[in-house]
Amino acid sequence: MLRSWSLGVRDPFSPTTLLGCAAEFIGTFLFVFLGCGSVVSSGIVDDQLNSARLLVIAIAHGFAIAILVAATAGVSGGHLNPAVSFGFMMSGNMSIIKGLMYWISQLAGAVLGAGFYREFPSAIAGHFGAHAVNSKFTVIEAFGLEALLTFVLVYVIFGTAVDKTGPSTIAPLTIGMAVLVDHLVGVPVTGASMNPARSLGAALWSGQWKNHWIYWAAPLLGATAAALIYTALFLPTVSSTQKQSTNDLIKNIKNEKHTEAVV
Predict the structure, then answer these.
(1) Which GO terms describe its cellular component (predicted)?
(2) N or C: more exposed end of the chain, with fewer CB within 10 A?
């Protein structure tokens, strides 16, 4: 069942939210540092995108997000991605103000993480691991792929980390595997962003802005679709079973009180 949006006017003054922002900043910084680093370092060995390099980049991004989600989930929820936070906001699972505060933290961390490589000649030559659309594909194809890749990621997040009936103990691993698989599919086409912060950090330092809008619009669309669909279908606020159980409990209490009064 879809939930109503919440503005969250008190969130900027909440210690929990501020700690969450700190965790998002650090986590996103480390993720972009490791993600861009995998592109830069693998490019030193071979600057062509062969199967081995594709696997290195995919594994690095997948395992990086897995360990960092595990490290930050208890503090911030482990979003590390503006698209994920946007999906939470649009589906009513996070207040708007808190989501925007997460955005600021994530983007700042991403810029700093990619900027770490500004003195590396190989990073400059490799555009800091910036995302770009393969010339063999149209903008529409690239947009559609990025949206679907992000849909997969956010759907997995909701199914494992948000849904209380899901396997939350292995959520970081499953989220990391989703990122890994998405990279195997998407790197040859778009670079497999799924994360506007990751794209912005590299683009800012490399100056590579062509089709950059895709890496914002498509992930936000895909994340919103996944969050809304999962929330509407599988996250009822109060299920009919729960309502019936509550009603039965109330009736039992009333009956007990009535019996006590008669006695």
Answers:
(1) membrane; plasma membrane
(2) C
